Amino acid sequence: MPSNGHALLSASSSHRWLNCPRSVTLIESTEDKQSEFALEGSEAHLLCEFRLRQALGIDAENPIPRLTQYSNEMEDYANEYVSYILELIEEVSKTCKDPVYLIEQRVDYSRFVEDGFGTADFILIADGSIWIVDFKYGRGIKVEAKENSQMMIYALGALELFDLIYDIENVNMTIFQPRIGNISTSSMTKTALYDWAENVLIPTAQLALEGNGEFKAGSWCQFCKLKTTCRKRMEENMKLAKLDFTEPPLLTDDEIEEVLIRIDELVLWADSVKDYALKEALKGKIWSQFKLVEGKSNRKFTDETKIAEVVHQAGFDPFEKRLLGITDMQKLLGKSKFEELLSPYIIKPQGKPTLVPLSDKREPLKIMTIQEEFKNVN
């Protein structure tokens, strides 16, 4: 078990190491730095746990005084999570007299992955079925429950605890991601879950621990600590260099689609390389073809209070008033108060057309040809 208290092959990073097992041994020696977004997510989990225990009549220490990211918005989303859990318990209780539930339950999946353990946000057991619910506070990436390895691993750990007692047959896994309105649920049989563990999880975990397997680039690279300097990721992104971007009309349809599939990842990778090179230069590294220079800057006031006083004395109003934007206004009021007061005055215009993969769940736009538009005019 790593000294930092986290499993080397953690469930939360399983999307990466199941696809790129060779990354594990390299990442093990890399310093782990918590981002501001990760801190915000951790604190939101603490608040959710506290509010849920309160709602269920369980004693709990109030974490709010020590939360650095606490806001009305976080409170609203925590309450949404609590409401969802209470509704789930109520629904299950209609067919089961005494469902069992656990909050922030440690699960051990070391029978499948050496030294494997983690914490499930919420577990509910009733009449041969088990529910695993995971709270996600991020809003940048939509997380789906279907074929979600983190949820499947948590489910395996939960079965280790409760299967012999409750004879579980069905496994239900839910991602609750309130900031983007995403509640994603996937169900599978216990047999199918164990088949996946036997044929995918166990052998891949063994490869990863032995330092074997392959390097493979993909969507799982986004949260990898080696994403900037990984050679495999560079090779995958540089495959686009063979295409002639200056003459898009000359590309085949297949080449255009290859660019579309890879372009977002290419931009992210390029930006991360630039950021890495700058940070290294600031540490003293000398790049052979680049140098550090002072960037452009804008003028700014040294003392805003004094500036306001001087301008006011000169007979002018130094301040401008403007309405807060929607995001800032929601943070100010809190989500529930925001909806109560302002929902009648908010519209959502139609978004600009954009190309997305076929896996996107949005309905395709109906685009009329010139001939169809001409017929409508007639």
Structure description:
The protein is of the alpha+beta class and 378 residues long. It has three domains: 14-210, Lambda Exonuclease, Chain A (Alpha-Beta Complex); 219-282, no CATH class; 304-345, no CATH class. It has twelve helices and five strands. The chain has helices spanning 14-19, 23-27, 36-55, 72-93, 149-166, 190-210, 231-238, 253-282, 304-313, 326-333, 335-342, 370-377, and strands at 100-108, 117-126, 129-135, 170-177, 182-189. The longest helix is centred in the C-terminal third of the chain and has 30 residues, at 253-282. The mean pLDDT is 85.
Features:
378 residues; alpha+beta; Lambda Exonuclease, Chain A; 3 domains; five-stranded mixed beta sheet; globular
